[in-house]
Amino acid sequence: MAEPIRVLVTGAAGQIAYSLLYSIAKGDVFGKDQPLVLLLLDITPMLPVLEGVVMELQDCALPILREVIPTDKEDIAFKDLDAAILVGSMPRREGMERKDLLKANVAIFKSQGQALDKYAKKTVKVLVVGNPANTNCLIAAKSAPSIPKENFSCLTRLDHNRACSQVATRCGISANVVKNVIIWGNHSSTQYPDVHHCKVNVQGKDVTAFDAVKDDAWLKGDFISTVQQRGAAVIKARKLSSAMSAAKAICDHMRDIWTGTAEAEFISMGVYSTGNPYGVPEDLIYSFPVSIKDKTWKIVEGLVINDFSRAKMDATSTELVEERDTAVSFLGV
After folding, report:
1. Could you read off the pLDDT of 123-135 as tens digits, one per residue?
2. EC number(s) per UniProt (predicted)?
3. Beta-ladder partners of 183
4. In terms of domains, do 181 and 264 share one?
């Protein structure tokens, strides 16, 4: 059997991690034959809860789970990591200004970036989930100068999955036959779910999303706003943010990094924008369509961008530039 890999989940006593850890530990992400050591990081007051999570993981009696290490210390959590899933972040509290939220998260992700730089393998793959995910990811990457920026990504796969599901439901088909939707930009309400390059398999034949749905007004209107506002809609209904669906998206994202994407298919993830072919400003973590091979992502090139799409892509990049500039101003603080 292979050597165990070391996988960190932060915010490990939280609700997303509770939905996530079992899937990782049973082999859904890194493979059924890949032994794991799970490192679980959370803040000190959450350690008693974390002990309960550890007990449950032990009680699952999973064949590939070699060890579970709960901790509140970064030097233990980040040591020799192969993969880091950074779920924990400061949530927005009522009455909190966005800049205050950014400031609090800069402190967290600067510290975690420095810990990655100091303790993790230089090959570590880092997925940032905690919001504001794009900017938190950028801060972590900037704080870990010895780790390639290409090793950092943020989660927009949940938005991608939501978009696939909306199209599938509208067409009365299963979500796995909807391919190549794109989430452009920020994991926020300015994101742009784009179906102009989407293929839908209807009765064995690939057709465009516009031909499958046969309702252009919906695809350019309610579909976009539904995906953009879906997180808020879940919170309104559940009184809690998305956990099960977020955990599933994290698994999809990391599995695709580890094993690659299918031929002629692409998925969405927030990656480093410098050198991109779509005119997105440099030095952002921006969600693009990517294909993955040998644990290396590549932005899909050559997609035609119409004026409708361009305006929406620019709007979300404007928000990200503003977020980045605010966050970077706190880096030295």
Report:
1. 999 999 999 999 9
2. 1.1.1.37
3. 193
4. yes
